[in-house]
Amino acid sequence: MITLHHLEYSRSTRIIWLLEELGVEYEMVRHQRHPETMRAQADLAAIHPLAKAPTAIIDGNLMMESGAIIEYILEQYGEGKLAPAPGSNDRAEFLEWLHFAEGTLANPVIVQMLAPRFGGLGEGYAPFVEGEVVKLLDYVEHHLDNREYIVGDSFSGADINIMYVIELAMAAGMLANRPACADYGKRMMARDGYRKAIELGGPVVPSLGG
Amino acid sequence: MITLHHLEYSRSTRIIWLLEELGVEYEMVRHQRHPETMRAQADLAAIHPLAKAPTAIIDGNLMMESGAIIEYILEQYGEGKLAPAPGSNDRAEFLEWLHFAEGTLANPVIVQMLAPRFGGLGEGYAPFVEGEVVKLLDYVEHHLDNREYIVGDSFSGADINIMYVIELAMAAGMLANRPACADYGKRMMARDGYRKAIELGGPVVPSLGG
């Protein structure tokens, strides 16, 4: 039994996508952001004190963290799909890219994207973040050159985890000179599971303000 | 066969600790930071282009990301130790805390700690980061109240992953009013495996500048 607490314009779209790819039944509870602060509100905080998205209740386990939820759902409901099994060839790379999405890549990309909304990041920190974004997206671009998926030769939960960040980077114009990332993003967004997730959960990026 | 590329004052101390707890043999290659920039240098970039710590080569797999390396080592070398098995009671919580350490907690704590070195974070972003640090550390404090370990009732890889951040928070004075976190930190640092890791790899925090 899976209950997904979905916050509009958020990482919880990942979990809709995963569940649609697996064809697993779930209940979805919808939460809106505060129209001015854009932050999650009391209805999500009533479920989990950190009010993070995604928040999910899976077989009685209250969970947050996209990567953890993806791993847990794949272990309990995946029937061997969308993840290389422990001990198999692509397992190390799968775990690495799954963790890389939020452990390393997401923060600089999102902070750089939201910097104008914060009125800038300070004279020392702003160029540091920009340097990280360039270095990390160039690394992903190099990795995706001549690759169909982020890990091995098939679609996996690691694609879902990294795609949220790729999509933000795309929307923020960061992929203009990174054709492998941009093509990968478009391929992933053409998948039935992704399109169904957007249909059910709404767009991932509201508007970047033009 | 495990080769750990250890960078001084870094997250790679986690992997020494894990391997010492497991009693698994490994080779350690030592890397120093640039004395002025404090960043990793060409010798680590020669192993992996992102020059991140930890970087490890495990049975021929070049890996980064602490959480991924911890999971992979536990799957391949753990013999059931230091992680609840898939399908067991504490599995969801284990995955969540393992991912939480770097996915949510580490960035605001480290950015807040390094803010003076960057000359500040900007008038809008600095209070946002500070608010996140308070909210997240208060959440961990509440979780650790009357608990011995971060997950269930035994030591696991999730303790190792979150302890790096707890130790930085402790060194930065962020645990002064968070006794459960501070006591937990001291308990973890009293473990033989931790002490051996510091003996072999050096301290995690060089100096915070007083």
From TrEMBL, chains A, B:
Stored SUPFAM superfamilies: GST C-terminal domain-like, Thioredoxin-like
Keywords from the UniProt entry: Transferase
Tree of life domain: Bacteria
Segments forming a coiled coil: none
InterPro entries noted in UniProt: Glutathione-S-Trfase_C-like, Glutathione-S-Trfase_C_sf, Glutathione_S-Trfase, Glutathione_S-Trfase_N, GST_C, Thioredoxin-like_sf
GO molecular function, one term: transferase activity
Domain GST C-terminal, residue spans: 87-207
Residues spanning the signal sequence: none
Domain GST N-terminal residues, every copy: 1-81
PANTHER family according to UniProt: GLUTATHIONE S-TRANSFERASE 1 (PTHR44051:SF9), GLUTATHIONE S-TRANSFERASE-RELATED (PTHR44051)
Similarity-based family: Belongs to the GST superfamily.
Name listed for the protein in its UniProt record: Glutathione S-transferase
